[in-house]
Input
Amino acid sequence: MSFLAIDIGNTRLKWAQYAAPRPGAALIAHGAVFLEAMDELADKDWSRLEPPSSMLGCVVAGEGVKRRAEEQLELWDIAPSWVVPSQHACGVTNGYEHPNRLGVDRWVALIGAWHRMLARGTPRPVLVVMVGTAVTVDALDQTGRFLGGLILPGFGLMLRALEMGTAGLKAPTGEAVDFPTNTSDALMSGGADALAGAVERMHRKLQHRTGQAPVLIMTGGAAVKLAPITDLGFETVDTLIFEGLLQLQSRRLAL
Output
């Protein structure tokens, strides 16, 4: 009865195998590969796994990449299933103008964050920050309604844009510091502060809207770069999308 959860972003494919398709199930194995190497999964990483009985995934990298993943899944006798954003799911209401146009990774992460917060007791608003190739900052109110969110370029995109659009500025090897005194630190600090400022501004807006201090959850491969520079209290949850996929799969099986 093991379950395979797959998250295909713009840069990497992340996967996790759980003992059962339900929230709180034991994690058996997990891994990640760059998209360039995903065609080797069936022969390498996945060849060592116990055959899963079901899978559910989310993909933002396009149909071509999804088909490549499905070719690797032919290793097992399971039907590939992929999340499509909807207006309601697992207690979360999608407030996007066109609900099906919300990025599927954002939708699944919101579901994971909502149930992580509910497990603590009293419902509170949640701010979900995913830091990857792009950065998203999404707001849930205390009823589980997605109010809206931001999309920003991630660290790499931001710095490459500066490198391409200016003379003499190269992608930095510097650090984020309070008062940069060299160009590398200035570039890194500028990008970091831009992202942190967006998070802190949205946090204030959500608190003003709901009258409650939001829970701040960060996830994504580059979250470690942003986490140290925000002044807000937060938690980093590497498995947030997988937690959302477990919630969705459990609900699907219950219907």
In short: The first helix runs from residue 63 to 73. The chain is about 35% helix and 25% strand.
